[in-house]
Write the structure tokens for this entry.
Amino acid sequence: MLDFLITAAHADGAAAPATQGSSLITFLPIIAVFILMYFMVMRPQSKRAKAQRELMSQLAKGNEVVFAGGLTGRITKVVDDYVKVEIAEGTELTIQKNAVIAVLPKGTLKNI
């Protein structure tokens, strides 16, 4: 069962030369684990990061947004890595762009 991990001993005592096929079979499970890890962990994580960067780059004045803490508001000003958000009339907060988790459809805040 585990013959591919142990080289076969010959009766004359000379070691058999390793063939290219047997070394490939030896490393095949390790290669398969790395491929599986790429598709299960690394690729989805990079897709989420790309989507978050696109969301942050598309923020504009007038967007209604939800922040990581559940706070909702309307963007009044975008400055570098920060946005000014009006959460109530006359109440503005300055929040980092990366705290934005979603952009709401227009008019959502009036219905809440």
Summary: The chain has a mean pLDDT of 85.
